[in-house]
Design a protein that fits this description.
Number of domains of chain B: 1
Number of domains of chain A: 2
CATH topology of the largest domain in chain A: Thiol Ester Dehydrase, Chain A
CATH superfamily of the largest domain in chain A: Hotdog Thioesterase
CATH class of the largest domain in chain A: Alpha Beta
Number of strands of chain B: 13
Number of strands of chain A: 9
Strand content of chain A: 15-25%
CATH class of chain B: Alpha Beta
Largest sheet of chain B: 11 strands, mixed
Shape of chain B: globular
Number of helices of chain B: 15
Order of helices and strands of chain A: EEHHHHHHEHEEHEEEE
Order of helices and strands of chain B: EHEEHHHEHHHEHEHHEHEHEHEHHEEE
Radius of gyration of chain B: 20 Å
Largest interface: A-B, 12 and 10 residues
CATH superfamily of chain B: Thiolase/Chalcone synthase
CATH architecture of chain B: 3-Layer(aba) Sandwich
Largest sheet of chain A: 7 strands, antiparallel
Strand order of the largest sheet of chain A: 3-4-5-7-8-9-6
Helix content of chain A: 25-40%
Oligomer: heterodimer
CATH topology of chain B: Peroxisomal Thiolase, Chain A, domain 1
Helix content of chain B: 25-40%
Shape of chain A: elongated
Distance between the termini of chain A: 46 Å
């Protein structure tokens, strides 16, 4: 019997026999019933909408019970090792079970860079559909941020950051030593709203420089990124020294010379600020490091998670 | 050389899962044998095994395992363990509590761990079968550390954060006695302050039944007489598993901590038969030399020995070899030391035996009794002349020998001495 292909997902369907079903139940016996249901549906239909439930269900089974609450409200930035306490051996157990359940093979090299739950979900989605794998999330310490950014202290408002194909996140702790707090306000230090907007803009700059934006062989020139406009800026909360801002931006449109992002800032779970659109201009660096043999895509890609296109290797790495 | 003392004991055995229960079983000669359900098949001539109670570890999936509620063991610890690993983990907890050791006293450069088990043929065969069926990349990542020889020390050293000396011993039924001997050396020579000595074995078909092939197992169907060392009708050993842990400490540590002491480890000796891979020397030559070496190392004469915990496993050849070895050592003074084999109660625990029986001897010295050699109806005439005690004596032995012999003709004798 020739394998059928699910027309919408491109997944090669193999027949799902009663024996396969029994094996699937056995393999997932320590996972939630919903995980088995999703896996059975996926195996029967090839519908990739079930993948996140399967992957999360399998991860949950390996997370110590007291940490499982973190998976209830799944955040794609949840880090597999640091946040969920999963070590590399447990990661292998997860992979073996995923391979078994989804009938696929994953090699060690592919696993090495998967840091977050989101990375894992996207990775498996791409593997199942036979799509090229996206750049996984990279974590940048402050030293690395400072080394690539055109903006420098005392005007740099990014602490540790993570950059993936889909956006960037960063933290910034208001130290209280920022020079402008002396005057903003008198005897009452409050982070200016303009600085919140600036911080999101800086994170968008970091994304342009580190987030695999660019055609093959080209990199964004750090000296040619400038602020253009913003829309829909709303502040919800006053932020004071000692608080940690969680910054997040996602690209909405990337088409030379404009890059438009949406962004938000949280303090813990509280909303601090939202920007519907923040737009920067950018340009590629003139000189080419080493032209890549592969044909470059004609348009600068934007990863949207649903259908991740081939992303060129970052030339700046 | 510095003196070395036993300051803590832990047991998961067929005759009890803690020291008080074990002590009671030894005194009352209560055995741990039963008809073992997996053996009750037409093509298996062996019917009896000595089974550890309150554990259900027959699944190859560690997450299915059931163990007493007083032990809490996380999945990430269980996944790399064999069934005997969990026995040993529990016995470690007991020994640590018994010796009243804090975390810092367990995890430091001066505290080590020597362990002995035969690995887990049960898990190894399961994982190899899975590899053949599903392919090499579908093997459990921790399948190797859970199953090969060494699994015991790998796991315990990592989970208890041992930072001193550590290794495993593989001399079959002499293994954990070797472990204890070399652990004694580490402390006596000043290399370590404290050593854990662990012996353990799986308690399952795969660990026991292969001995049926060499006709070493008893085919008795009555659990109450299947293991009867020194009896004329003995027909082989009864298999068992479990774990025993001993804590050895230097005299300095005992003084510093004000630790309670079971007894002193006064010395040890070993010698090999150089004779046969699986059959003991007919005159017990290696064991004789092991006992003589041990007494010399402890600076004791045979006259000082009150009790010998014999290796005697209830096999026709082995028990006689040991009887001859004892006769050769004690010559004119043959009736002085009481002799018994506690394997009549526990069955034979292979790598576990040495540590388990040293633990029994430590209990006997501390609590003041000598366990009888159970299940003897007609003493084998070849053992006549020895003072084989058939009932438990209420006397405190002050010097005790514990013998162990393993495949290849490896023999170890440990000397334990009461603290005045």
């Amino acid at each position: 019997m020739a394998p059928a292909a699910n027309p919408s997902s491109g997944v090669q369907l193999k027949p799902f026999t009663a024996e396969d079903d029994a094996n699937l139940r056995e393999a997932l016996k320590r996972c939630s019933a919903a995980t088995y249901e999703a896996a059975a549906q996926f195996r029967k239909t090839g519908n990739t909408e079930h993948l996140p439930a399967i992957v999360l269900g399998i991860i949950e089974r390996y997370v110590e019970p007291d940490l499982r609450a973190k998976l209830k409200d799944p955040d794609d930035d949840l880090r597999i090792i640091e946040d969920l306490g999963i070590d590399s051996l447990t990661m292998m157990e997860i992979v073996i079970l995923v391979e078994d359940v989804l009938q696929m093979s994953i090699n060690n090299e592919e696993l090495r860079h998967l840091r977050t739950v989101g990375d894992l979900k996207i990775f498996i989605d791409c593997k199942v559909r036979g799509l090229p794998l996206p750049q996984p999330t990279r974590f940048l310490p402050i030293e690395q941020i400072a080394s690539v950014m055109p903006i420098q202290p005392p005007f740099l408002f990014l602490g540790e950051a993570s950059v993936s194909a889909h956006g960037a996140n960063a933290k910034y702790k208001i130290s209280g030593q920022e020079f402008f707090l002396q005057g903003h306000f008198k005897d009452d230090p409050v982070l200016p709203a303009s600085i919140m907007l600036e911080a999101l803009g800086q994170l968008a700059v970091l994304f342009l420089l580190e987030g695999s934006v660019g055609e093959a062989g080209k990199s964004v020139d750090p000296k040619k990124i400038f602020f253009t406009s913003c829309e829909g800026v709303r502040c919800h909360r006053i932020c004071r020294p000692g608080e940690v801002l969680t910054l997040s931006i996602k690209p909405k449109r990337l088409k030379l010379p404009l890059a438009t992002f949406e962004g938000n800032i949280r303090v813990g779970q509280e909303k601090a600020a939202i920007v519907e659109e923040i737009t920067l201009t950018f340009a590629f660096a003139e000189e080419l490091a080493q032209p890549q043999p592969e044909a470059a895509p004609s348009e600068v890609p934007v990863a949207d998670g649903a259908q991740t296109p081939s992303l060129p290797n970052e030339a700046s790495a | 050389m510095r003196k070395v003392y036993i300051t803590g004991i832990g047991f998961i055995t067929s005759i009890g899962n803690d020291a008080p229960t074990v002590s009671e079983s030894l005194r009352e000669l209560r055995h741990g044998m039963a008809l073992y359900p997996p053996f009750q098949k037409a093509d298996i001539p062996v019917k009896v095994a000595a089974i550890v109670k309150d554990f259900a570890v027959d699944s190859p999936d560690a997450e299915d395992w059931v163990f007493p509620a007083r032990y809490t063991i996380k999945r990430e610890i269980l996944r790399g363990m064999a069934p005997h690993g969990i026995y040993a983990y529990c016995a470690m907890i007991q020994a640590i509590e018994d010796a009243r050791l804090g975390t810092a006293e367990i995890s430091n450069r001066q505290t080590g761990l020597y362990a002995a088990s035969g690995g887990s043929p049960f898990l190894l065969s399961h994982f190899l079968e899975r590899m053949r069926r599903l392919g090499v990349m579908r093997c459990q990542p921790l399948g190797i550390v859970a199953s090969v020889a060494g699994t015991l020390n790998f796991n315990l050293v990592a989970h208890f954060k041992i930072k001193g000396a550590s290794t495993g011993f593989a001399s079959a039924c002499a293994s954990s006695a070797h472990g204890l001997g070399f652990a004694y050396d580490e402390i006596a020579l000043g290399r370590q302050e404290r050593m854990f000595v662990v012996g353990a074995e799986d308690n399952n078909v795969e660990n026991i039944l292969p001995f049926a092939g060499m006709r070493a197992l008893s085919i008795q169907t009555d659990p109450s007489i299947a293991s009867r060392p020194f009896d004329a009708a003995r027909d082989g050993f009864v298999g068992t598993g479990g774990a025993s842990v001993l804590v050895l400490e230097s005299e300095d540590q005992v003084a510093r901590r004000g630790a309670r002491v079971y007894c002193e480890v006064a010395g040890w000796g070993q010698a090999s038969d150089g004779y046969n891979v699986a059959i003991s020397h007919p005159e017990g030559e290696g064991l004789r030399h092991a006992m003589e070496n041990a007494l010399r190392a402890a600076d004791l004469t045979p006259e000082a020995v009150d009790y010998i915990n014999a290796h005697a496993t209830s096999t026709p050849i082995g028990d006689i070899s040991e009887a001859k070895a004892i006769k050769a050592v004690f010559k004119t003074n043959l009736t002085r030391p009481a002799v018994s084999s506690t394997k009549a109660l526990t069955g034979h625990g292979l790598s576990l035996a040495g540590a388990m029986e040293a633990g029994f001897c430590a209990l006997a010295i501390k609590e003041g009794f000598m366990p009888g050699s159970a299940h003897i109806t007609n003493l084998d005439p070849a053992c006549a002349g020895l003072n084989i005690i058939r009932a438990t004596l209420p006397n405190r032995p002050s010097v005790v020998l514990s013998n162990s012999s393993g495949f290849g003709g490896a023999n170890v004798c440990l000397v334990l001495r009461g603290v005045a």
